[in-house]
Amino acid sequence: MTVIRPEWSAPSHVRVLCTTREGGVSEPPFNSMNVGLHVGDDADAVAENRRLLRHAHDLPADPVWLRQVHGTRVSVLSDVMSDSEDEQPADGAWTEVPGEVLAIMTADCLPVVLTDQAGSHVAAVHAGWRGLAAGILTEAVASFTDSAPRYAWLGPAIGPTAFEVGSEVRETFVVRRPEFAAAFVEVCSAGHSAGKYLANLYELARIELAALGDIECSGGQWCTYSDGDRFYSHRRDGKASGRMATLAWLDK
Question: Which domain holds residue 64?
Answer without folding.
Answer: 3-159+214-250
